[in-house]
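yo

u said u wanted the structure for the complex thing, so here. seqs first:
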Amino acid sequence: MAGQTIIEKIFAAHTAADASVEPGSIIWLDLDVRTARDFAGANVVKNYQTHYGETPVADKTKTFFTFDLVVPPSNIPYANNQQVCRTWAREQGVGVYDVNAGIGSHVVVEEGLAYPGVTLVGTDSHLNILGAIGAFGQGMGDQDIAFAFKTGRTWFEVPPTMKVVVKGEYQYPCTARDLTLAILDKLGSKGALGRAIEFYGPAIEALDLPGRITLASQVTEMGGIVGFIPPSEEVLAYARQQSGRADIPSFAADPDAEYVETVVVDVSGLEPLIACPPNPANVVPVREVAGRRIDSVFFGSCTNGRFEDFAAVAEIVQGKRVAPWVMATVVPATREVYQQMLRSGVLQTLFDAGFIISNPGCGGCASGHLGMTGVGQVNISTSNRNFPGKQGAGDTYLASPVTAAWCALKGEITVPEAS
Amino acid sequence: MKETTVKGRLWILTNPAGKLYDDIDTDMIFHNRYLHITDVAEMGQYALDNLVGWKNFARKAQAGDVIMAGPNFGSGSSRQQAVDCFRALGINAVIAESFGAIYKRNAINSGLPIVTMPGLSKIAGEFATGDELAVDFATGEVVLNGEKRFQAEPFSGVQMDIYQAGDLFAYGESLGA
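structre next:
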């Protein structure tokens, strides 16, 4: 028998001992954590009540709501849906990370619910972001999650795994986001369709956790099920600390594991990249679209909403002002990020530069609670998708926080400077 | 046992250039401004209304129709509504070259028949909106206007089991879950 890839190892540890865990086989997967957010949460509750009545969830200590999309609610339908979830959660004794907490996929990492080897599902299609910490996360629909709440498991088809090997190294002003865009450019929107990815190479190993989160968050845009970045010592130490677990087993791939494909991406000489409308895989060098006047910039989302992302922006805008015609919004991923920004002075720097700073959450991503774009509006965003209508009616370009910061200052698409 | 062959009037989802639409994401199928809706019956009216050229699809579609699209249909978010809006309209089947991973699960779980047809883009010219299409979920055979035959992928085992049970909940119940 051939060795196992990371997803095969995690799955084997979460299914019947005699189950065949090979690409294409369908297994019952035990779920360590099951979540729902304000989006689809009320649908999960409705499905649950319809099919399971008032019976208890499988394990209330492993079941959570994470409100992050429209927080606090800006319209009555969302307010109603959140209240439906809250009320039901109280009845069931299920925990709620309410409208003050931030993006669920980040909260579960900070709270130590997600650590290497864990299986976690929820109604956020970017939950596979947990590959950043070596966990299996998966976004699912509301029926799936209602079933998971009740049974603690789900059926899953074991995906084949592909390997993405990054060669070479890149330099500032390129960041993890540019590395991610380079990989997305290479794979396209379907390059990993229905597959798991494992990322390797010196540039991958060098990524800090926020950089890993940026990369893992875009695996959905590559069509992938999940993308694993083998945890570094630093990531493992963080996971131990947050989860309070001294021993976290290694889920590294076996040397003789089988991969369906290996793709090599060379990032030597990488230059700042940007994804143009209408989709995240429409990647070009920033210089090719430089000079286009912009109207707004959005900093945040599960892709680039960490403290380190905002600190990089603060460094660039320190003592400067955003262009007068630009609406620049900043949305920290979580309350913890917000606090780091407060304590470090990053928040003051951004405020002084003219940024609008919001409470934590998804912000303008997915037409959330603030910062929608109007028809004809040109928007630079550090978020994860620029499909038509995703962030409003305007044209959204996706770029790194560094590139976006320079764009905000100049009021046009501009290549970031190296210092 | 439910019938495993369905027949219906075909809609070919074409882009403004007249080609089979690739990468139709869930925001195009069911836009995020309707995400607060929890009643399936209300979802049908919004199906595809954010897809360029298809704004009025829901008004023209009839129960029993079959939809055909290019690769990566249903990419993007996890919203179940992007599946349920077609169930609400009574769509008989969705055939695509490939499906987004989460969409595929959501469709299977709710019993909406989806059929993967590798290489569809290359032969899309064979089909036209308004044609009659018969699809056999058990064998993957697709029959156009009662004459021409094409091969798609049959349902997977779990897909057929859930389809026969009705949905994921009924399937789970049959297993004692």
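The CA atoms of residues 137 and 155 of chain B lie 6 Å apart. Helices of chain B lie at 26-29, 40-43, 57-60, 81-89, 101-110, 120-123, 157-165, 168-174.
cya
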